[in-house]
Amino acid sequence: MSAPAPPATQGRPVRRGATLAAACLGVMMTFLNITATISSLASIQADLHIGNTALVWITSIYSLAVASLVLAAGTAGDIVGRRLVFVIGVGLIGLGSVFAYLSAGVALLLTAQVVIGIGGAMVLPNSLAIVSHTFHEPHLRTEAISIWAGCSGVGLAIGPVVAGALLGHWSWHVVYVVNVVVSVLVVAFALLVVQESRHPDKRLDPLGVLLATIAVAALTFGIIEGASIGYLSGRILGVFALFVVALAVFVIVELRHPDPMVNLRLFRSPSFSTVMVVAVVFMFGFTGCALLMVLYLERVARLSPIDVGLALLPMFGVYVVVSAIAARIVRRLGTTLVMTVGLVVSAGGAFLLLAAGTDYAYAHVWPGFAIFGFGMGLVAAPTTAAAVVSVPPQQAGMASGTVNMFRQLGNVLGASILGTILTSRFTSELPGELAGNGVPAPVAAQVAAAASSGGAPSSALPVSLAARVAESVGSAFTTGFHTGAIVAGVVLLVVAVPTALLVRQRAAVAAPAPPASAPTVLDAVAAGESAAATGESAVAVSAVAVGAGPAVVGTVRGADGTPLAAAVTLTGPSGEQIGRLSTGPDGTYRIPVGAGGRYLLVASSPGRRPHAETVVVGDGPVCHDVTLVGSFAVRGRLADESGRPVERATVSLIDAVGDVAAVTTSAPDGTFLVDAVADGRYTLTAHHPGCVPVAAGIEVGHDVVDAPGHEIAMVRRARLIGSVVVAGSGRGVAGATATLTDEQDRVVATAVSDEHGRFAFDDVASGTYTLSTRGYDPVVQQVRVEPGRTGSTHVEFPAPDGRAVPLDVVPAEGGRPVVH
């Protein structure tokens, strides 16, 4: 059962805007934590006396928690309520920040980052699903998603500035107080403005969650720890083997699960798979390069925390601006071109970072920062929007969870791989740099040991020796920075190639194909396009070797990929029945045919929309998989402006191609119910002889909303009658033209007076109008029509001798006439 989307009312835009603001504040918190923590690393390392490996773990363990749990959190939101899970997630971010504030050692800080990561995993998919649920119109949804994605950039941008401002006066602990304060505000705001929504048919997949967590954790652990103990060591090889096994079992479990955490069948589409790769690479480059930039500015340029934040503003500022307008750019140029250009530009920005040297000069680095941020801004919003609109609406939680899982996986890999490249290259280059600058071996060993743990031994050395040590450390660190930037640029550039070749412009959805059309598979995704409006066939046809002789074989599934028990009938060119059967438990069927040719396949299942498709059979079997979309009910209530029910109104559902899908009549209490409606987007219209027709866009099968139906406001019509006479004589004027104009100067109706000078306007909406009457000399007056009432007015033309006679009009408040 599905309720229609609330129609547009005067209060709806405000509610939508407030809901978007709450979701954006939540996502800003999750990304602010990333860059604020990165900006605090130097202070944390100096205070807690930890090595570089532990330092990488502080940033990576947060993303590890998010990547491991984001899909499960999205499914939990679908089941128990997206607002509820969102609010709990924001609360956990605040709670984890309290733990971080109280941390006196690395163990509690890592625990705090895990708690914050769990909260972030709950916030990210559900904030996006809330936005997707709130904005039903395709263009508005894409705009909203772009704003949502842009706010992630705002969080990334203000993180270094906020951290720098606080670190200039207090310890790194105070940085986490920001999340505590903001979380309290966001929880209160969300409970006030966000409407609860859910998809209760979803089920959790605890085994999938466990396997995904093991796989991601094993991969991350192997990457980070392998840098210090060796990637070919038995321990690391064992961890990587665990990753492979956990991933393989995860795939098997998800393919067999009736309601999987990840619908792996979506990855059959090269376009969708490429979008997920872009999501990984996007955060890989963004987070990894941000870490490199912060460490370079702190360790080589030796900027203060606040100066580091300000120095990074060109990157984050440009990113925020570009990601905010990316949706409009996509509508002009297309998703593929924008994402490809964004990746190439980002790679160019990463390569420009090679201009940074040991002798720091801001003029050498800010162009690379700005260009990198520009490219990242072009990639962010299109990637997110493409993932959401590439699946049916009821899978919004899974889609948003999937894209966020891959983005957070990229977050983990970016911080761990690029951070590891930086530290390992720095460690390997430092001895040679020290020797080359004439630093004695004992001092060089001491410096290398201290540098790997974040120490600064040069402060206790003679001035001349300290200068050579500082130069050596800066040169080795810059080499590591350059290596990381090169790796990031190459990865971004390489991924641009499949993006240009495989990502298409239209969204792939599970929707019925037009009858008798050639089967196609449109597997591309595009930001800003309505999935339900693509008219895409959900049938894949390919020749396969299944048995001998001509036959039609395949599988019948629901929109979520679950096998269905269905009746399948095959008819010949003249309508004769060739075969009929019921699918097996796995949804499969096989109908032999006597010879090749064109056949009509019809599949049906209780509670779902029947599907018909023309199949061309050759000499062998043809595989014809069918997706049946669900059948739902639409309910609501019609009421006039005073809240009274509107009965016997005609309610129609018009589909995306303009056909009337269903019609019903409202009951005496104004309620209506339309049964057996296929999922998709419709225009709901309501018509009543005594009311102004209304229309609203709805999305069937998207959600079950808590409210028991939705009230649609209808404005009752009124009637205006009048007479035109000659002043003084009272004689009616025949043939006078009366024109009614609304407050926007639009002509509403025109009438001509009869032989007695009378005229009438039927079916007029309530409101204030300008009545212009032409006969002798024109007469203009204002009238007000009350809803559901018949008003009257009286017009007097000046006498033929030119003597004007006052109009017999009752003055209203403010001197305006009133129609009674």
UniProtKB/TrEMBL annotation:
InterPro entries: Carb-bd-like_fold, CarboxyPept-like_regulatory, Ig-like_fold, MFS, MFS_dom, MFS_trans_sf. GO terms for cellular component: plasma membrane. It is an enzyme of class 3 (hydrolase). It comes from the Bacteria. Keywords: Membrane, Transmembrane, Transmembrane helix, Transport. It is found in: Cell membrane. One of its GO terms (biological process) is carbohydrate metabolic process. It catalyses: Endohydrolysis of (1->4)-alpha-D-glucosidic linkages in polysaccharides containing three or more (1->4)-alpha-linked D-glucose units. The chain crosses the membrane at residues 20-42, 54-72, 84-104, 110-132, 144-167, 173-194, 206-224, 236-255, 275-297, 309-330, 337-357, 369-389, 481-503. GO terms for molecular function: alpha-amylase activity; carbohydrate binding; transmembrane transporter activity. PANTHER family: MAJOR FACILITATOR SUPERFAMILY MULTIDRUG TRANSPORTER MFSC (PTHR42718). This is alpha-amylase. It comes from Pseudonocardia dioxanivorans (strain ATCC 55486 / DSM 44775 / JCM 13855 / CB1190).
